[in-house]
Predict the 3D structure of the following.
Amino acid sequence: MAENVLIYSLSTCSHCNATKRLLNECRIEFDFKDVDLLTDQDRKAVLEDIRAFNPECSFPTIVIGKKVIVGYNEKEILTALGMGKSEKGVFQKILGFFKKGN
């Protein structure tokens, strides 16, 4: 996966946390900015960045390469990553296998 992935999120947002969990499960490297944990000046600058992608400034705002996804939409996220749901299932089965100590 060569594309950069960035999530603009809120630390308490269930949809933001689900997005991070999905990417972790799929072993996708990503950066994130929890906007609510930033200082006032940093928050203001990041909100301006978000508005360039998502004028409504809602969360999560996910940037995958040049693709912007607003909100948690697993199918759309996986498609933007070049993965299908079946590939996600394979990752989960492999992780489950190793977690069981096999």
Q: What stands out?
A: The helical segments are 14-25, 40-53, 74-80, 85-99.
